[in-house]
Design goal:
This protein is about 35% helix and about 20% strand. With about 475 residues, the chain is of the alpha/beta class. It folds into two domains: about 5-270, Rossmann fold, CATH 3.40.50; about 290-475, no CATH class. The strands form four sheets. A nine-stranded mixed sheet has the order 3-2-1-4-5-7-6-8-9, sandwiched between helices. Strands 10-17-14-15 form a four-stranded antiparallel sheet. α15 packs across α18. The relative contact order is 0.08.
Length: about 475
Amino acid sequence: MSNLEQDHKNRRHFGQHFTSIDIFQQYIFPEIEERLWDFLWVDLFAGSGNLVLSILEYIPLEQRIPFFQDHIRLFDIQDHCIHEAIENAQKYGIPPDIAKENIFQHDSLQNYPTEQLTSTFPIFHITNPPYLYVGYIMKTPETVHLRHLFTEKNAGYQDLYQLAMMNDLRKGITKMIYIIPSNFLFGNSVSNKIRRDFFPYYDIKHALIFESKIFENTGTNVMINFFERKPNDLPKITPIEFQAIKIRSKNPSDREKKNYYLTAEQNYKAGNEFEEFIQNVHVTNPLGLKYYLKLAEVEENEGNISLSVIDANDFQKAAYQKRIIHVNSKLAAKIRANPLWVRTVDTGTPNGRVGLYRISESFDVEGILVTKATYRTNPIQIFFDPPLSLENQSLLLEYVNLMLEILRKRTDSEFMTTYKFSSSHYTRKYFGLSQARKLIKTFPLDDLIETEQTIFRKILDDKNESQLWEFINNRNQ
């Protein structure tokens, strides 16, 4: 197996994406340079050691060995990473026998290395932990051995990096710098539990949010969080306030400072403007809807009417496979009366942003069938109950898509979860199904008198974002 193939295998098995020395020097060292001698610098997921061994470059040569002995501990689960870390320590002048005393092969997710961290200095944990989403772990043969990590006290967490953070919390670590996916702050269901459990104990002192690629072999957008434990070690349900720098490219001028205010009521999620908008919209009779046409419903309503559908669980050669189903008149009418589907993941193209679409135009079929598990990233058919006329569904499509563009511009798309880095001209986002439902329920048509309906329809026909925003907010007031 080539080195490239082995690296790919390791990423799939362990969720590791190794950090370059440049990331440490440019973004982390300026935050710690005044206190190098004050802490025991630890990385429990060290890889080749770049995040902590790089400190040695700033220590005088004659002091590096005692500094390493007293102030550095590195751990990693993979033996080849330990070998590389020991070699890298030698480049800074640390003899291999001394390096081996403080660089350990150890599974820190499974067992926290408390004994090896005994020191007169307080621990400062700097790490780029593994990240693999639990859904991927559960369905992928190469990673299914990790499923036991998400049981008992870790039940409900959604990613390996979240387990690492909770391990530090349980051990009372006071200072940490974590390089983790941006969905930690901006995700919904994927991050609600970790934020609810973590933020009563920790503040974010500072953060760097990257919307450009910093790891060669992953499309995950990441952020660097500078965490500090709250005083007195008691949980406090208080807001989290901090300033972050959004970094959109390697160009230093392409950066923006932004203040964030996170509250327990919003699960400490950043980008709360969407929820605030939803809460301020008052609709007397919001639309009722359900997601998915499932195979069980088709089998319960077999009949002589043939309908063309795509199988949302059968994606081959860059396309969802088409099939014919045979259903009774009741289900056929239901499918044909609900021609819309929701795209929850940006494709990266201008015409592939999250929102509502017509099934016939997108796939040249009448329905979207789910034959196996429901995946939120697949195309999802929407069914309205009570029924919504086809004309009003067309208006709804225009309303939702236009409102999404308004909210994306007003919030820098922060109400959605960053999906994957790509070379597209915008940052790809994931729009949650619960968010889609909430936005659909703000559709005000039934609350409008005839003159208002005329104005509303014209605004949508013209795709006038400013007028739509003003129209909706005036109604709320």
